[in-house]
Amino acid sequence: MSTQPEVPLNESPLLAETHARGSRHRVRPVASWREHHGWSAAASLRRLTSRPVGTLLTVAVMAIALALPLTFYLLLGNLQKMGEALGQNQTISAFLQVGQSGTAADLMAKKLRDHAEVASVTVKTPQQGMDELARMQGFSGALHTLDDNPLPYVLEVLPRPDASADRVDRLVAELRDMHGVDQVQDSGTWRQRLEALLGVGQRVVMVLAGLLAVAVLLVVGNTVRVDIASRSEEIGVLMLVGASRAFIRRPYLYAGIWYGVFAGLLAVGFAVVVELALAEPVERLGHAYAGKLHIDVLPLWLLAAVPVAAAVLGWLGARLVSAWQLRKAA
């Protein structure tokens, strides 16, 4: 962007400043301020559309930078749901001592159902366990040789979905200490590893979002810097006739806002495309796991907030660079 298109006379900031000075006594200050804001927004938009290739490249780079944290947020949310469906809250199996009666098993189950961290308790009888073994290949013949059923009662304890790994660990320790419990099988290590991985993923998304926000600021700032440098003579004339810095930089601030709005909308489009691309394979995976898996889409409030946040970043980048450039030119 070494050259800039000529600015029509009716869009020249110099003419606008002269017109504003001439009509200062006829127009109220608030109306004049509002009029110039409207002119700045429209003029900056026309200037961006007058160079579509450069504007599109800048907006595309910003959109990719904004879409990356959205994509990672989407993947992290679906990974968390996948962990919940495939084992984050897996059932804890408490094997009672051989010889415990069904009445004792029912009493223990009733006591556990009142526990704050327990969602449900299922009692599996020795006969049910024997039937499961009989359905497994290679065990049916061996079971016929047994004189009696050696399997104990089993309590299948399902922790609450919102129970953390530490609270589930305490629940497992309480089960092991209960009278009549022989052995407890738990996937606590799996839960702890999954929660640790999700915590790392959330921190990575936050750091990535911060770095890419800085990248958006730099892209907008560099674009505005080049634009100001190409119009240094015009800005010098405006300063000579008494134009304020706020008046001069206002169109550039609106240009940064337009860059941010367009980039935010395009980033939302990229995120929706990623959602659509993941929908079919996740649906096939869900069928493989008996419908337990479902894709988690990005919330509407987040999609609506992206263009707003991008506009703020664009304004901030333009504000910082334009203030610095105008101080140099003063």
What are the low-pLDDT stretches, counting only 5+ consecutive residues below 50? 1-11, 13-27
Largest sheet: 4 strands, antiparallel
Distance between the termini: 24 Å
**With helices defined by DSSP (H or I, 4 residues minimum), what is the helix count?**
11
Mean pLDDT: 78
Class per helix and strand makeup: alpha+beta
Query: What's the gyration radius in Å?
Result: 33 Å
Share of residues in helices: over 70%
Please, how many domains?
2
Strand order within the widest beta sheet: 2-3-1-4
Give the overall shape, derived from the CA principal axes: rod-shaped
SSE series: HHHEHEHHEHEHHHH
The proportion of strand residues reads 5-15%
Got a strand count? 4
Note the topology.
Blueprint: H1 13-22, H2 29-49, H3 52-88, E1 92-96, H4 102-113, E2 118-124, H5 126-135, H6 140-143, E3 154-159, H7 165-177, E4 181-185, H8 188-230, H9 232-240, H10 245-288, H11 300-329
Antiparallel strand pairs: 1-3, 1-4, 2-3
Helix pairs in contact: 2-10, 3-8, 3-10, 7-8, 8-10, 8-11, 10-11
Give keywords.
330 residues; disordered N terminus; Alpha-Beta Plaits; alpha+beta
How does this model look, in words?
With 330 residues, this protein is of the alpha+beta class. It has 2 domains: 9-85 and 194-329, no CATH class; 91-186, Alpha-Beta Plaits (2-Layer Sandwich). 71% of the residues lie in helices and 7% in strands. It is built from 11 helices and 4 strands; from the N terminus they run H-H-H-E-H-E-H-H-E-H-E-H-H-H-H. The protein has a 4-stranded antiparallel beta sheet with strand order 2-3-1-4. Helix 8 packs parallel to helix 11 (300-329) and helix 10 (245-288) packs antiparallel against helix 11 (300-329). The longest helix is centred in the last third of the chain and has 44 residues, at 245-288. The radius of gyration is 33 Å and the shape is rod-shaped. The model is unreliable at 1-11 and 13-27 (pLDDT under 50). Residues 92-184 form the FtsX extracellular domain. Forms a membrane-associated complex with FtsE. Part of the ABC transporter FtsEX involved in cellular division.
